[in-house]
Specification:
alpha/beta, eight-stranded mixed beta sheet, four-stranded mixed beta sheet, binds N,N,N-trimethyl-histidine
Length: 310
């Protein structure tokens, strides 16, 4: 059986520059490593976003109104959505959308137990593709896309995603968490932590290929390389081949030259005005923005006009 991962790895090793989607980071081991990243002293986004949500969730609840339906793009950290569920007035429904059915079922079971009055309706789907949701109730539909996951999209993909979210959320809003442009040293440190957890997270892509695709990547022959590309306003993560080496996959051999890279992730950073302009182009009416005292992270309330509104 050839999986999507196998096909994409073959494509990545065939085409130059070599690149693969960061979605393949998140097998069980990768998800565990990502949770550790979120606890690192250098990796501020998770802590800052939680602080902002904690501090301002009352204002968010007032904007959402009674009986809202929370649609989360990617069933992420339960900690974040719990803040909303606890503060919103009688939330009617929680609709997490994720490609991993297993992760969704676990999250759904936990929340059903904790919130007996809440209807939990997981949707197994790729939220970057057009999707249909169960019919709405009385309350507003509030999208939730935290963690600056939107930073993994190219600007074109981000615009397309926001466009379909604006339609899906008509009459409601999107609560969007974005990592902000800042001192490049701070950005650099966040992706080059002293403990090497981000390096292990990056290298796990190759370890996962060895586990699932039967490749024989020698992890020691690759260097984690993450840097801030200021003109493009993004962190880039790469795995650099330390030597000339051949990789066997799907009956073929792929040569990686010494110094060649496999580009594994882009993590775009945003300005406040940049997010608002992008959201506006996608059909949202930008609302309040909340940030932390150091201006490291931003949480945006973006109104999704109903069909009748201008
Ligand atoms: C989950 C995509 C928001 O870009 O900061 C963390 C992933 N990669 N460290 C990010 C990540 C390396 C993270 N996102």
């Amino acid at each position: 059986m050839t999986t999507e991962f196998a096909r994409d790895m073959v494509a990545a090793l065939s085409a130059r520059p070599h690149r693969i989607s960061p979605k393949y980071f998140y097998d069980a081991e990768g998800s565990r490593l990502f949770d550790r990243i979120c606890e690192l002293p250098e990796y501020y986004p998770t802590r800052k976003e939680l602080q902002i949500l904690e501090r301002h969730v009352g204002e968010m609840a007032a904007l959402a109104g009674r009986g809202a339906e929370i649609v989360e793009f990617g069933a992420g950290s339960l900690r974040k959505v719990r803040l909303l569920l606890d503060a919103f007035e009688a939330p009617a429904r929680y609709v997490p959308i994720d490609i991993s059915g297993e992760h969704l079922r676990d999250a759904a079971a936990i929340l059903r137990r904790e919130y007996p009055g809440l209807e939990v309706r997981p949707v197994i789907a790729d939220y970057t593709q057009g999707l249909q949701l169960p019919a709405m109730g009385e309350g507003r539909r509030i999208g939730f896309f935290p963690g600056s996951t939107i930073g993994n999209f190219t600007p074109e993909e981000a615009l397309a995603f926001l466009g379909s979210a604006a339609e899906l959320l008509r009459g409601g809003a999107l609560l969007l968490g974005v990592d902000l442009v800042k001192d490049p040293q701070v950005l650099h440190a966040a992706y080059n932590d002293a403990e090497g957890v981000t390096a292990a997270f990056n290298l796990n892509l190759l370890a996962r290929a060895n586990r699932e695709l039967g490749t024989n990547f020698q992890l020691r022959q690759f260097a984690h390389y993450a840097f801030y590309n200021a003109p493009l306003q993004r962190i880039e993560m790469h795995l650099i081949s330390r030597v000339r080496q051949a990789i066997a996959l799907a009956g073929e051999h792929f040569v990686l030259e010494e110094g060649e890279t496999l580009h594994t992730e882009n993590s775009y950073k945003f300005t406040m005005t940049g997010v608002r302009a992008l959201a506006q182009r996608a059909g949202f009416r930008p609302g309040p923005v909340w940030t932390d005292a150091d201006g490291l992270f931003g949480v945006h309330w973006l109104h999704a006009p109903a069909r009748s509104e201008p």
